[in-house]
Amino acid sequence: MKEYSFGAVRAIRNEHVSASAVPDFLSVAGTKNARRVHRALSVYEPTPLVRLDGLAQRLGVKAVFVKDESKRFGLNAFKALGGLYSLFCLICRELEIDAQTATFEDLKKPGLLEKIRTMTFVTTTDGNHGRGVAWAAHQLGCEAHVYMPVGSSPARAEAIRAFGAECVITNAGYDDTVRMTAGLAAEHGWFLVQDTSWPGYTDVPTWIVQGYTTMAEEAATQLEAAGFAAPTHVFVQAGVGAMAGGVTGYLAARYDGRRPKFIAVEPENMACIYRSAQVNDGEPHAAIDTGDTIMAGLNCGEPCTIAWPVLRDYCSWYVACPDYVAANGMRLLAAPLAGDPQVISGESGAVTAGLLAEVCGQENCAELKKMMGLDETSVILLFSTEGDTDPAGWERIVHRGAYPAPF
Ligand SMILES: Cc1ncc(COP(=O)(O)O)c(C=O)c1O
User: Which of 32, 77, 134, 403 has an alpha carbon 20 to 30 Å from 367's alpha carbon atom?
Assistant: First the structure.
């Protein structure tokens, strides 16, 4: 691993990207059931893959595609892909239903529903995951308790309560709130639906990571329909890294033999994947940062233990960037160049677009652009993982220019 600084962007290059086969649970076959369950939902529709030709031209690359997850299930973020699928698998396991053939709709059958309603679900969230879990539990009439770390946006808490869940903002940070929630689950016999793993807690997060791969599969299929056999670069933002791990693993499997470069992106003040790459002993490591960031969904200090090995093995770069990069990404997507469609993207959703613009557009990143192999042949895939999930924050940043870039 080699570490670099370019302006305010810090980057670590992985000099030993693995060409090995992807672990089974993220292979094309291993993730098929998640797609089957999602596609059977009445609300299912692939989210748009938006093409930004004006931006591509401006940045000197061949094409830029943004997967717009603000359109997912009407929930304004991708996270319910994992929340719903894991809840489904958990219920199937508990009630001995065949998860490989049943659908979420099947769970609503009389006789079954009464048993399911005795189950109570609990989770910690910085917003989007908890909303997905509350939404899925609500459809079955189940009780859900959702805990949010100190400083969480009241608007995000309200969006969770709208699905009938109890939602409490705690006095602790994200990782301590996760520990508290796991304790409550054990104490009350509640079912923990956490979107990160640790030794001894891997089944639910494995289903969650598999659930996230649906958006990668959709993107790959949409890219093919647009005439692109594969992207050359995929930027994935990371909190605990579950989403980045799922997307990276699935796409590394799908594009075996012509794998794109994967770039994991985090806020500089909470970068546990970056930290793990920096320590470079193969193990996941907690961030040593302040946690002061506007990227609420990425404000997680401890890597997901099942996702980390995927990111360790298949990512070419690990990047830590300041908040203004995310804010720039939000503005860039909200006010696109002439001819490009608009994407409404929140702080955690837009950081990869902001980073791409920084690397390709700023003189002090020219060397990084070259090292990343970004040029006129590059086809870039980004995931805008949320819309304006904190509308007041979106307004402050996009319309009032908060978190400006330094000049
Ligand atoms: C909008 C958004 N993007 C990305 C992430 C990161 O996902 P993960 O924690 O799996 O790394 C989150 C997590 O909550 C999120 O809400």
Answer: 403
Q: What is the pLDDT of residues 208-222, one digit of tens each?
A: 999 999 999 999 999
Decide whether any atom of ligand 1 lies within 6 Å of the 297 Cβ: yes
Beta bridge partners of 63: 379
Q: Is 79 a catalytic residue?
A: yes
Instruction: Look up the pTM and report it.
Output: 0.97
Centre of ligand 1 from the C-alpha of residue 129, in Å: 8
Contact 265, 351 (CB under 8 A): yes
**Domains of the chain listed by start with CATH number:** 2-77+211-398 (3.40.50.1100), 80-194 (3.40.50.1100)
134 φ/ψ angles, rounded to the nearest 5 degrees: -60, -40
Q: What is the pLDDT of residue 359?
A: 98
Residue 62, number of CB atoms within 10 A of its CB: 15
Among candidate residues 68, 71, 126, 289, the one labeled active-site is 126
Q: How far is the CA of 238 from the centre of ligand 1 (A)?
A: 6
294 CA → ligand 1 middle, Å: 13
Q: How far is CA 224 from CA 45, 231, 377, in A?
A: 18, 10, 16
Burial (CB count within 10 angstroms: exposed 0-12, middle 13-18, buried 19+), residue 407: exposed
Find the mean pLDDT for residues 22-39. Answer: 98
Q: Which atom of ligand 1 is nearest to the CA of 129?
A: 14
